[in-house]
Amino acid sequence: MKYARMAIVSIMMLVLVFSASACSPSSGNSSTALGRVTDYRTAKLQLLLKNEPAPDFQLQMPDGTTLFLSDLRGKVVLLNFWGVNCPYCVVEMPYLQKAHDELAADGVVILGINTGEPEKTVSKFVTSKKLSFPIILDPDVYASILYKVQYLPTTYLIDKTGNIQITKIGAFKDVNEVIGALKTLLQ
């Protein structure tokens, strides 16, 4: 009888704890807007080859608009898969920000696809680094699987026709390398 009462009290305590956490906001008080990969349909995996179409997926941009990657045709796209806990990714982020600042007006879109980390962690990082290019959460690593990402950072540069032109595994060494690669696709 004593054990039954203890079990009931324990279960009631657990219910209270879970009820309280379910009612609290999950994203904290962060004001950083993040996007999200939103299309989780089964997609045909394809080879990721130069001059071949970049695999398409749907995403919600930080401003709330929903689009497919293919909707960005006509622009040069840098698709960077990264993580907060990846030291090379952290070093590379300011290079991507500077490239965004310099080339966004020329039709370059830089998308940072975060691979499976909690929104609160990513939001805190984005705020602390003052990143203004779109950061897209990939909580179920859908896009990461579609792009066969095995190492972070991994970057794909996609030309104006929607074809992969450059695949880079590892971090860019400096901002000039990022800008130089993007400018070759703008010509």
Give your account of this protein's structure.
- The protein has one domain: 3-Layer(aba) Sandwich (Glutaredoxin), CATH 3.40.30.10.
- Strand 5 (108-115), helix 3 (119-129) and strand 6 (135-138) form a beta-alpha-beta unit.
- The model is unreliable at 3-31 (pLDDT under 50).
- The chain has an eight-stranded mixed sheet.
- It contains five helices and eight strands; from the N terminus they run αββββαβαβαββα.
- Helix 2 crosses helix 5 (175-186).
- The longest helix has 22 residues, at 2-23.
- The chain has helices at residues 2-23, 87-103, 119-129, 142-146, 175-186, and strands at 35-37, 58-60, 66-68, 76-82, 108-115, 135-138, 154-158, 164-169.
- The chain is α/β, with parallel strands linked by helices.
Quick synopsis:
With 187 residues, the chain is α/β, with parallel strands linked by helices.
By CATH, the architecture is named 3-Layer(aba) Sandwich
Strand content: 15-25%
Strand line-up of the largest beta sheet: 3-2-1-6-5-4-7-8
The best one-word shape is globular
- Relative helix content: 25-40%
Distance between the termini: 80 Å
Q: CATH homologous superfamily name?
A: Glutaredoxin
